[in-house]
């Protein structure tokens, strides 16, 4: 059974976050008038900062503002594909390309584990040659309408470890027979970093840099 190389995406593989840029890209492509509603995003961010809403609700509200309460997958697909092209051409750390190729050459199974939404992450993962995606899901009806509502857990913090473990169980991957490498930029991924056999702090945030130094985790810079 192949060992696992599990990667966070935003600010680990990519230079910047992708969630808000995707919503803006999709709004431009589908309904440019919705860009006017972006003026309300700072208010949702403020509500989150004041702990009036959680990250899950923040994402749902911003999705509703910029692409609507429901959009068909077929209608959204062209924006997803052009966004994935843009990200892979302009927003990937050079070192990420090299490490992905190295893990692939070593025979590891490449898994992208991100809090971003599966409905656009899969297109990015395909271009990066990942084998599997563990991402935040969206409620989707039989009509294949993607709702502005998260299905299951927001794949962030401790939830990311639970979802990785659930994915391993689904794929009948026993933890004791595989070695796991995990790459992340942010201290919110401490549960997965601590669980992995090899924890790598990539372009780490201040909090993760301090934690990695304390725990003896490898620190790398993929910016060049």
Question: Mind explaining what this structure looks like?
Answer:
The relative contact order is 0.17. The longest helix has 18 residues, at 73-90. The protein has an eight-stranded mixed β-sheet with strand order 2-5-4-3-1-6-7-8. Helix 1 (19-30) packs across helix 4. It has helices spanning 19-30, 41-49, 55-67, 73-90, 94-105, 118-127, 158-170, 190-195, 206-215; strands at 4-7, 70-72, 109-117, 132-140, 145-151, 180-184, 198-202, 218-220. It has one domain (4-220): HAD superfamily/HAD-like (Rossmann fold, 3-Layer(aba) Sandwich). It is globular, with a radius of gyration of 17 Å. 46% of the residues lie in helices and 20% in strands. By secondary structure, the protein is α/β, with parallel strands linked by helices. It contains nine helices and eight strands. The mean pLDDT is 97.
Q: In this structure, how is the largest beta sheet organized?
A: 8 strands, mixed
Radius of gyration: 17 Å
Shape: globular
H/I helix tally? 9
Question: How many structural units, i.e. domains?
Answer: 1
Determine and state the CATH class. Answer: Alpha Beta
Strand order in the largest sheet: 2-5-4-3-1-6-7-8
According to DSSP, the number of beta strands is: 8
Considering the protein shown, what is the CATH homologous superfamily?
HAD superfamily/HAD-like
Structural class, judged by helices and strands? alpha/beta
CATH architecture: 3-Layer(aba) Sandwich
Cα distance spanning the termini? 32 Å
Could you tell me the CATH topology label: Rossmann fold
* Helix share, percent: 40-55%
Order of helices and strands: EHHHEHHEHEEHEHEHE
Which residues sit in consecutive blocks of at least 5 with pLDDT less than 50? Answer: none
The average pLDDT is 97
Content of β-strand: 15-25%
């Amino acid at each position: 059974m192949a060992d696992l190389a599990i990667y966070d995406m935003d600010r680990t593989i990519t230079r910047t976050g992708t969630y808000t840029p995707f919503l803006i890209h999709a709004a431009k492509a589908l309904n440019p008038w919705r860009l006017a509603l972006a003026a309300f995003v700072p208010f949702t961010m403020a509500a989150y900062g004041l702990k009036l809403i959680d990250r899950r609700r923040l994402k749902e509200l911003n999705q509703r503002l910029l692409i609507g309460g429901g959009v068909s997958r077929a209608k959204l697909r062209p924006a997803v594909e052009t966004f994935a092209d843009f990200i892979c051409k302009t927003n990937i750390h050079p070192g990420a390309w090299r490490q992905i190729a190295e893990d692939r050459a070593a025979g590891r199974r490449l898994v992208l584990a991100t809090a971003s939404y599966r409905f656009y992450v899969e297109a990015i993962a395909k271009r990066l040659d990942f084998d599997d995606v563990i991402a935040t899901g969206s409620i989707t009806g039989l009509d294949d309408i993607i709702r502005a509502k998260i299905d299951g857990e927001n794949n962030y913090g401790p939830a990311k470890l639970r979802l990785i473990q659930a994915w391993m169980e689904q794929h009948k991957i026993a933890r004791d027979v595989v070695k796991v490498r995990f790459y992340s930029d942010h201290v919110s991924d401490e549960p997965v970093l601590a669980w992995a056999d090899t924890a790598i702090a990539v372009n780490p945030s201040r909090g993760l840099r301090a934690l990695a130094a304390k725990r003896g985790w490898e620190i790398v810079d993929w910016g060049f």
